[in-house]
Amino acid sequence: MEIFEHLILGFSVALTLENLTYCLLGCILGTLIGVLPGIGPVPTIAMLLPITYVLPPTAGLIMLAGIYTELPMADRPLLFW
Question: How far apart are CA 35 and CA 13, in angstroms?
């Protein structure tokens, strides 16, 4: 049952308030940059990568994941309405 211990540890790290805040910030930045025409996911990650240099490694990866997952929806932000 060691796998469940590792899963619980991973979720406890990922679901802290600090990391959720960085994920939200990444989603907001991904939306703001993603609505620009002609800029896809790879250039957006490349442009926003220097922001993560000052963050802890876990927070930086979570923020980049938030940016990357928000980019496909950025060109249609009112899709759910």
Answer: 31
Q: Where are the domains of the chain?
A: 17-74
> 24 and 66 in contact (C-beta within 8 Å)?
yes
pLDDT digits (tens, 9 = 90+) for 27-38: 999 888 888 888
pTM: 0.83
Q: Is 57 exposed, middle or buried (0-12, 13-18, 19+ CB in 10 A)?
A: exposed
- The letter for the amino acid at 70 is E
* Ramachandran category for residue 29: left, alpha or beta (phi over 0 → left; psi -120 to 50 → alpha): alpha
